[in-house]
Design goal:
This is DUF1652 domain-containing protein. It holds the Pfam family DUF1652. This protein is an alpha+beta fold and about 120 residues long. The protein has one domain. It is about 35% helix and about 20% strand. The chain has three helices and three strands. Strands 1-2-3 form a three-stranded antiparallel β-sheet, with helices on one face. The chain is elongated, with a radius of gyration of 16 Å.
Length: about 120
C-alpha cells in the first residue's frame, strides 16, 4: 500500500445484476442502482460530508463539504449516470473528484496567503 493511501478507507461496491444476460440488451445501462452509486460516493469522502443528488434526467451532482466548518470544498453537477457503469469508472470518478477537491483546497490556501 502506498503512503498516500494509508489513511483512506477502502471503497466497497455492491453489484446489481440484471435479468438480461445478453450484453447487447444491457449496453448503456448501469450495473449499479442509483442508491448504490450515491452510497459509494457519499462514503468515499469521509470524514468530509458528501451530498450526491440524482436528477430526473439521469444526471447527478456531488457536493463535498468540509467536515468541521461545513464550507463547500467542491461542487460538480451534470455528471452522467451512464458514465459510472462499472466499479472502475466509479473509482476513476472518486479519484478525479478527490484531485479536484485537493486542487481547490490548494488554490484557497494560496489565495489566503496572498491576502
Amino acid at each position: 500500500m502506498c503512503s498516500s493511501c494509508a489513511g483512506r478507507k477502502p471503497i466497497h461496491l455492491k453489484l446489481v445484476y440484471s435479468l438480461h444476460h445478453d450484453p447487447a440488451l444491457c449496453r448503456g445501462r448501469t450495473m449499479f442502482s442509483k442508491t448504490d452509486i450515491q452510497r459509494v460516493l457519499e462514503t468515499a469522502f469521509l470524514p468530509s460530508k458528501c451530498e450526491c443528488v440524482v436528477a430526473l434526467d439521469e444526471t447527478f451532482s456531488v457536493k463535498l463539504l468540509h467536515p468541521e466548518s461545513g464550507d463547500i470544498q467542491l461542487y460538480v453537477k451534470g455528471l452522467s449516470l451512464s458514465e459510472v457503469e462499472s466499479s472502475r469508472s466509479i473509482a476513476r470518478l472518486v479519484l478525479s473528484l478527490r484531485e479536484q477537491r485537493d486542487l481547490m483546497g490548494l488554490m484557497d490556501l494560496s489565495m489566503r496567503r496572498m491576502a
